[in-house]
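Progress report, Aim 2. The chain analyzed during this reporting quarter is listed below.
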Amino acid sequence: MEKKTAGPRREFRKRKESHDAPAGSRKEFRKGKVTRKPEAEPVRLNKYIANSGVCARREADELIKMGYITVNGKKVTDMGIKVGPSDIVEYRGKKLVPGKKVYILLNKPKGYMTTVKDPHAENTVLDLVKDATTERIYPVGRLDKATTGVLLITNDGDLAGKLTHPSYGARKVYHVFLDRDVTRHDMETIVEGVDLEEGRVSADAISYADTEDHTQVGIELHSGQNRVVRRIFEKLGYKVRKLDRVSFAGLTKKNLQRGHWRQLTAKEISMLKRGIYK
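Predicted structure tokens for the chain:
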């Protein structure tokens, strides 16, 4: 339970330009006729793989490129081909079948790897949700072994690809515990941008999580780079003692104990697909 204290709370946040529409420019939308595509229409191979719960579309392209995918018994490396219901698609000899979409929210505990590919991993997050479904599922994005908190697991490749793509910008909020007090100057620096190996990375907002304990901060950002929060603070000379993701794309771990999971509600799924949770 977070400690609540009285007193002023300062938050550093990026400035946003005003994009208010002028009066009289309101656009009216009317319901039109919807033309449904036939269910048997061929789809791109990477989408077929993603819908089978192996991975997201971008990762599927890599599997195709590396020659791990066969269609009707023949190895395929052309990422642009399409397949239909009568085609037999296999990944390393196992037939892929698009299944029912599953959306699971896990409050990840410490000590579990966020992977489905590492055969040497002792504990993975999939071990925690093994009774949730018989479909092939995988985590959306990654949390390192020591990081806890909100993790979405699904077999919806389209949604997973959208949530992890930089242009979508799924919002992530972390509770960070440091080895010493975080200065206001460093908080301003984090919002302005910190230079990492892949370029400058900035947070959208940062504030003290406890007004009496300045070793704890809450940080909000859209960046999805690997271990980005830890690397930001390490660059400024801090050591992260504990890292907990409290929100991902609007999903929180409210009423969800560590190590437990639940299915997303229909409303949550709809909002994710419509891009409302950011």
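The two ends are 25 Å apart (CA to CA). The mean pLDDT is 86. These observations will guide the mutagenesis work planned for the next reporting period.
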